[in-house]
Fold these 4 entries.
Entry 1:
Amino acid sequence: MCDDYIRDHHPALARRASRLGGRLLTAKGDHVSERPAVTRLPGKPNQPLPPTGRPACGQIVRIHSGQSHGFIRDEDSREVFFHRTDTAWGTFNQLLVGDKVAFELIEDRCSGPRATRVRRGDSAR
């Protein structure tokens, strides 16, 4: 009876229910909702978790401070991209060409290798 009433008087809810397999959630709660359980993850809501990679070391070879990015040459002699947001706050402006840095290396098939969590020093934690 309740499902018929909703189909007749609230066509938008009926269309939504048909997409959910015909199940309607009424005020009485006689049907179960199909929503996934909410998970509580650290960080900001509705933001993806920051990517993590394998620890690596390298040396700064180029910095484009006006464009907020630079490149690191890693132990395998590859140039690895990093962005200002991948460094600790205030660290980007202090980096110079030739500085030894430690970072986490992310291998991306589309855009190539990227460094995250870039910090001064040559110890890859």
Entry 2:
Amino acid sequence: MKALLLNPPGDKIYLRDYYCSKTTKSRYYYHPVDLLYLSGWLEHKGYSIEFLDAQIRMLGFDDTINKISNISPDLIYSMIGQASLDNDSRFFGILNRRFPKIPIYLSGDIFMTQPDEVIKEYFPYLKGIVKNFMFPFNNIKDNFSIPLPRHDIIHDKRYFYPFLSTNKFATVLTDYGCPFNCSFCLIGKQGYFKRNIQDVIRELKYIERLGKQAVYFSDQNFTALPERTIELCRRMKEESLIFEGVAFARLDQISEVLLDSLRRVGIKTLIFGIESFNQKIRYKTKKLRLTDQEIINRLKMVKKYGIRTAGTFILGISDDSYENWKRFLIKLPLDYISFNIFVNRNDLKPGDQSGDKELFDDKRSFELIRMQKKLNNFFYFYHGKIFFVIKNNFRFILQAIGCPAHIL
């Protein structure tokens, strides 16, 4: 039996994995973790694995359909997203009409909010939903182990991630879900489950044998349990598993001991969700109970260990005054920023976060996109940060403007 793991085509560059769909702000793209970790389970169940990433290969609907025809799979596992719903419903409708006998299974954030309604309206032909890509056939449990993901198959030279200097990288998960419950995010609703550290080490040894030089730790929070992260780093150091690394972390969890452990195994950049310039909003969304000065002090601590800092922010959960954002950004010792626009999902109540539901009216989307561009321009040209970015991300910039992967 042949299983096709499919990242479907899009009219934009979509990231759909890990129940958080969005469009990318440039041409960066990393391995879709839903499909990556499904690959090990499907092989474990006796399937031969085929992989097609129509997004990274920039395929249209017709070309993707033709390649699927050539593969001739017995079943298809794929992803959709709230951000790409119109695009995805059109594509899978065409796919089902062309191959009505091939069972289709889908994973995606939209199934976490309104699965019955979505299936009835958009995907009545679905064979099933993948509710947990890390444990698709069993109930997940803490300290879990999994079949080895097929990094050799879920691979393309065109994958690359900002903050990493090479495209010879792997995407790895050391846990599933998140122990926090930020009100604008769905992941906390999945619960939180730790992966057995020895199982993580086994996967890292495998990607080392494949010649990978860097790792994007795609955990929602790589430092969710700081003592566990320190132990994982100790084991990595013991096994000489040193990779250039990037990971997400929380500023309210970092310490000198944790940062030293991360530095010793090659972590070069930590990404922190700061989300808002407004301290009250940070408190209300259950994201970060730190004052502005505490945020500044902790970012300085990170940089003391030679680790670059990136901050993520959300437009659409506060009164998005350009001047307020500017004043806030000037204060922060960040090397990189990333502004995302809030995607309203039915079971998230943004009005509860800001007290003003009008902030999330779709009519504001154009204004928020303009604000996003203005703030990015301001930050990267302020104090010459653009030169720092070019120096540290020259390879990324070349690929972002279209330089072919094979000459990088």
Entry 3:
Amino acid sequence: MANGTARPFVARSAFAYLGRNQGPELFFTDPFTAAAPAQSVIPKTLSLNRPLESIAINVRFRVVIGVADYDAVAAEAPATFLQRLRVTGTFKGAALTPIDMTGATINAWMRLFGLVGSSVVINGVRQPDPGDPYAQTVANFGAQGSYDVDLWYVVPTWPVVTVGQRAGNIVPLCYQPRDWNDTLQIQLDYGDRTSFGTPNAATTTVFTAFGSAAGTPQARIFTSYLILGAERSGFRTACVVRNEQSITQGVTALGNNVRLGVLQKQKTTNVLVKSGTVLAGTSAGVNVYAALSNLILDSTQVMIDNRPIRNNQFNLAAREHVNKQNNTILPQGYLPFLFADSQTPRSAYRGDLPEVVAPGAQFELVTNVVTAGATNQINVVQEQIWADRDDPAWMGTR
């Protein structure tokens, strides 16, 4: 019993968590030019001298728009400037990408669960949290003028649960030093001026340092850690994986029972379906939504061999249910399927069990496309938990 395995999962985790965090600590500063889309691989591995609770990316710059206003702005601008965040490493000996998401989706993620996380600040004014409707305007960001933009992207390493449930649930899912062995690498994909929308042919844009007419923009990476007590090794660890993919095939024409994609056969805590129309004319490597919509898809289902796990017949009703469950207002175009609404990841859907998803069975997303459009695009995030198959914390769950 010295290793703590005799205690229930929640009790062991809560006993280990002393209730204090350290951070946010500045890990790295990355200057960039924004003249063209660019990828930046941070030249040192993520510091894991303590369990990592969250990562925060702060992107700051001034952009001066001159001569002519933008013709149109992206729905989620300027959070769209960080095109993608990737975190990769070796987890318990296996290559893994725990985070691969667009900046726009990261910006909205915490709001799905009724919490404030990421922020967008323009000229010192914090912008409203993503809601319904969710759209940017040229008058607010895109007209001629000078804009100091301060973007905060907060990425928890654990499935989002309420504050009162964190002590008993998040500790085994934070990034533990012994699991990753100094292998975690961060890559930031930056956009350019087309990540904000469609500039007029005459529009000019000049990027400089935040609050200055000179210098270069920069991104700063902050890390927050847990302080654990004597039971810090008395539990088995796991890793939350959130990977986002974009889908255009099969969603531009009307159709019923359209397969959006195959899901990974893993413990699944949440599945997000995000829909809208993509902006045309962006630079190569830049992808943003011109508009988000609740009306492109309907009767979206998570299914196993044509059997729905949640019998959703009306997407708008499903959105209202999540609003009630999470005390939130879902951003326009966002439809999450929750399997941790019990406020513990142990209620994850056990897609990893052969008796739940049989060998050869299809674990998939299926939907009706009820609004046709050549620029329709669907983004999907499957939040999964990678854990040891013999971890007693997961025994008996379905």
Entry 4:
Amino acid sequence: MMNKPESFSRLKWRWIEQIMHDPRLSHLTRVVGFEIARHLNAKTGDAWPSQETIRKNLRIKNISQVKRAIAALRALLYLQIVHGKRGASNRYIPRFDRLPAISDAATIKTGSEGGASARPGGGANEGMGWQKLQNKGGCRALLTLEDNSKEKARAPESETSALTADELIWLSVKNVLAGLVGLNLCRSWFDGLRPKFIGLVEVVMVAPSKFVKHRIEEQYAAVLAQAWRCKISTVEHVKLTLDASQLDSTPAKDEVPASSQSAEVS
């Protein structure tokens, strides 16, 4: 029996749970991640609260603390940032594509057979900071804490290299897709796609193989177009193509070679 796809809301709460259980993050960084999640839009797959809004809502003293928290979330691959232009707010795209599979998420939540809570990045002792936080009153206690310590870990440079503008748009579209078809199916069929051209009316995506291209065209073309329209309402067509190396140079059966055509005309 096929599992029911996870909703966007469920994916959002799993993303929050990962942040709250990550011992590499400071208390303040966790609650800033939670505040960004509160503003997530299911239709666009991202959020755009200003840093000043985050600071006021959480009663943080300095805007620099908010900036450091956001930088830490990005460094540890929890989100990507599209920087706003001309005074516009940044757009924050959660990395749903990096959430663990359902079975892995259950292991993190319930712990090992011995009863110890398994946290990302270590064993039972790694989660003691989060346990102390819970004993102090949960998220409310976070608001009174100062964030004077640096994060405990950083992701490799190769993993945090900046994505192109088109790749960032596609990342938020994939978040919408994950809410429509489920995270596992989204990973299976859509992770290999990459944007080639994004216009107001047409989007062209490159598929990794003919098999993936044909399967998406046969079964998921409508839902792919729906996800793109959530981001760009004017999109009418989503076209799939292949890399030049994937294209078949042999003519199709119904094609007549140019030499034959000229012979017939003469």
